[in-house]
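Weekly sync, protein design subgroup
Attendees: M.S., D.O., the rotation student, P.L. (late)

Item 1: inverse folding check
M.S. brought a backbone from last month's batch and wanted to see whether the design step gives back something sensible before we order anything. D.O. pointed out we never logged the input encoding, so this time it goes straight into the notes. Structure tokens as presented (145 positions):
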């Protein structure tokens, strides 16, 4: 395995672990902690997801450079493209809508439906699931290439 593939594999699995830990573990659990109100939970979520998305962008760049150097299989490139596409959609369209909704809730409005999740929240979670599957496929394809 050359250095490009090694760097890409490492970045893919770090990225995958971060998404799994934050999106599917921390995010749902924070609202169950004693004393965490909706405004506090939203504030924490905004900070955590802003940091996660920044890390994801850096890791995506590492994977991209590693793939340019290594020239892996077309399947690995396509799988990475799916993960990258999901991230771009989240950053460009979904996350800004979630920020607007949380601004409304934090300002005292209901954000559309009070404590329930919005459709845009489900879109973000769906894209996270797509990203998890695509990153897993990317990592496996790079390891077996």
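Designed sequence read out in the meeting:
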């Amino acid at each position: 395995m050359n250095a490009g593939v090694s760097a890409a594999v490492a970045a893919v699995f770090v990225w995958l672990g971060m998404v799994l830990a934050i999106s599917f573990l921390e995010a749902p659990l924070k609202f169950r902690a004693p004393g965490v109100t909706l405004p506090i939970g939203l504030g924490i979520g905004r900070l955590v997801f802003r940091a996660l998305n920044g890390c994801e962008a850096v890791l995506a760049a590492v994977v991209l450079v590693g793939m340019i150097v290594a020239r892996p299989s077309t399947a690995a490139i396509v799988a990475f493209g799916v993960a990258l596409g999901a991230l771009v959609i989240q950053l460009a369209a979904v996350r800004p809508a979630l920020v607007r909704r949380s601004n409304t809730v934090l300002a005292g409005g209901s954000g559309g439906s009070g404590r329930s999740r919005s459709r845009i929240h489900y879109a973000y979670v769906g894209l996270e699931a797509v990203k998890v599957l695509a990153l897993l496929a990317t990592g496996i394809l790079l390891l077996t290439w």
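Discussion: The chain has four helices and no strands. The helical segments are 3-30, 38-70, 74-106, 119-143.
Action: P.L. to compare against the previous round before Friday.
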